[in-house]
Design goal:
Layout lengths: L1 H8 L3 H4 L2 E12 L22 H18 L3 E7 L2 H10 L5 E5 L7 E6 L2 E8 L11 E8 L2 E9 L7 H16 L7 E6 L6 H4 L14 H5 L3 E2 L2 E2 L2 H5 L21 E3 L2 E3 L2 E4 L11 E2 L5 E2 L6 E2 L2 E2 L4 E2 L2 E2 L10 E6 L14 H4 L9 E12 L2 E5 L5 E5 L9 E13 L2 E15 L22 E2 L2 E6 L2 E4 L2 E7 L11 E4 L2 E6 L2 E6 L5 E3 L2
Parallel strand pairs: 1-2, 7-8, 23-25, 29-32
Antiparallel strand pairs: 1-20, 2-4, 3-4, 5-6, 6-7, 8-13, 9-10, 11-12, 14-20, 15-20, 16-17, 18-19, 21-22, 21-24, 22-23, 24-25, 26-31, 27-28, 27-30, 28-29, 30-33, 31-32
Length: 512
């Protein structure tokens, strides 16, 4: 009995584990002090760039700190110069017994894994271009408790180049995935340099869109179908190879792992197939996906990135990316209950409707051309886009909602029918909001009234605050410096920015 107890006591914890955590982290340009002529100019060692023993040690220590605090069982890393640096991290973090790495010999950086879990195989998926050098996709095979699974570590080309470059990565990866058994467990992760909703964001910068709106992450890897982002139910009901992106589990303001010109972006992603939601092998632990952002990495809406100014190292900061992390388990997951949708507020809990639902007593607070805002008493408001001809402002209806959509952050109804006409509501304007936190996304689509402020260059300044303001018709944009009262506006949301939307000139009063 003593021998058995002792043996069990000293079994490695992971051999008994039914769960593991997986992270992805772009560490931002981790180079050594050997000059190989493939470094970026600001990382030429022991020159006036200030990349020297001191700054290297700071960078190393900072990466180690993040990885210690993150404490994932497997970490996928991007922007590592060579395997020797990965081994150095392993030496500093002996909990990681296994490593995997890949890089082209004439490339600046590569990508790899640190793992507490056994690595049984690795290979590179090569993607070559005639005039540019990027990174391979690193396919690494792991084994835990006799369960084998693969993780594909990606670092796609940045947005210095158009979408066709990322399409090539996506196609090569998808071809590989189609050769795996349908029930094989795998995970796609890394720095895709693509937003989870790239199908929308690609239109922000025309120079990127040389593919007529087709994107690698959404259209080639099939994380977007039938005009919506893929849900778990979509995968269960489809014979296609689809992928679910757990960014959908976070509230929209929390969906970022990096910033670009102050805008939230999700360059780093996890993409999961149907095999990660079955009853065999490992299963994704739903709602476990998180962004790792302690205060030393993220504070005052700023990422504490590694600081380089005029190509001179400052020796402070971490990375321009935040790590993302998720959990996987062998335990069967409880079926996530679909919300019982009876009120408008319930529509904000889901990405799409699997079947039509009826909402009673929806009052039209505003109607303008193709737009209407409806609201139920003691519930939220929502925008309806198009086909609103038979709705009238100030009237109540029972509506059969066929489909909804999240358009650039704003929740919308895009297909509906009138079930019943309930009559005119004389006091409907009492549902307009006067004292409301305008910067809380949970208040989106509400109709705001009586806000006094000063208009200046696209913003309304009021009460020592400012909010973006958009006018549906440019002809009634006030002059800069105008004192105005907004009598009626929608509290909208567009491209990570809360804004007031003014529909009519009569909704603006000028104050002398």
């Amino acid at each position: 009995m003593i021998r058995v107890f002792t043996f069990l006591f000293f079994l490695p914890i992971l051999l008994l584990a039914k769960e593991f955590s997986l992270a992805s982290y772009n560490v931002e340009n981790f180079f050594d002090l050997n000059y190989n002529k493939t470094e970026y100019k600001e990382y030429k060692p022991n020159t006036n760039t200030n990349w020297n023993k001191k700054t290297f040690q700071i960078k190393l220590n900072n990466i180690v700190k993040v990885l210690k605090d993150l404490d994932a069982d497997i970490v996928a890393l991007q922007e590592i110069e060579n395997k020797e640096l990965l081994k150095l991290l392993q030496k500093k973090l002996p909990r990681y017994k296994y490593i995997s790495f890949s890089k082209y010999s004439n490339a600046s950086v590569g990508l790899g894994f640190l793992s507490k879990i056994e690595i049984v195989d690795e290979k590179a998926i090569n993607i070559k271009f005639s005039n540019k050098i990027y990174r391979p996709i690193l396919e690494t095979t792991f084994k835990l408790n006799n369960n084998e699974f693969k993780i594909f570590n990606n670092h796609w080309p940045s947005k210095r180049v158009a979408e066709s470059f990322r399409i090539k990565f996506a196609k090569k990866l998808f071809d590989r995935l189609e050769n795996l058994p349908r029930d094989y467990d795998y995970i796609l992760l890394g720095d895709f340099n693509s937003n989870y909703n790239e199908y929308e964001t690609i239109f922000y910068e025309k120079r990127l869109n040389n593919t007529n709106g087709v994107t690698g992450i959404n259209h080639v890897l099939n994380s977007f179908i039938n005009n919506h982002l893929v849900t778990v139910n979509d995968m269960k009901d489809s014979s296609k190879l689809l992928h679910y992106n757990p960014w959908l589990e976070l509230n929209i303001p929390e969906r970022f792992s990096s910033k670009f010109r102050g805008r939230n972006i999700t360059a780093d992603n996890f993409l999961l197939p149907i095999s990660m939601f079955d009853t065999k092998g490992f299963i994704y632990k739903q709602n476990s996906f998180k962004v790792f952002k302690p205060k030393y990495l993220y504070k005052n809406k700023r990422i504490n990135r590694w600081q380089v100014k005029n190509r001179v190292q400052k020796g402070t900061g971490y990375s321009d990316h935040l790590p993302i992390i998720a959990k996987f388990t062998t335990k069967p997951q409880k079926k996530i209950e679909v919300p019982n949708i009876k009120m408008i507020r319930d529509l904000y809990k889901i990405e799409k409707l699997n079947e039509s639902i009826t909402l009673k007593n929806c009052i039209v607070l505003l109607k303008h051309q193709e737009f209407a805002i409806i609201k139920q008493k003691n519930s939220r408001a929502i925008l309806i886009y198009k086909n609103i001809e038979n709705l009238s402002e100030g009237f109540s209806y029972d509506l059969k909602i066929e489909q909804i959509k999240t358009f650039k952050g704003l929740k919308e109804v895009i297909d509906f029918e009138i079930v019943n006409y309930n009559g005119k509501i004389l006091e409907y304007k009492q549902l307009y909001k006067k004292d409301l936190n305008l910067f809380n996304i949970k208040n989106q689509n509400e109709i705001i009234t009586d806000i006094k402020g000063t208009y200046k260059k696209g913003y309304l300044y009021f009460d020592n605050k400012k909010i973006a303001i958009y006018f549906k018709n440019k002809s009634f944009i006030p002059k800069n410096g105008s004192s105005i009262i907004i009598k009626r506006a929608q509290l909208g949301y567009y491209v990570n920015k809360i804004q007031l939307v003014v529909f009519n000139k009569s909704d603006i009063i000028y104050v002398n």
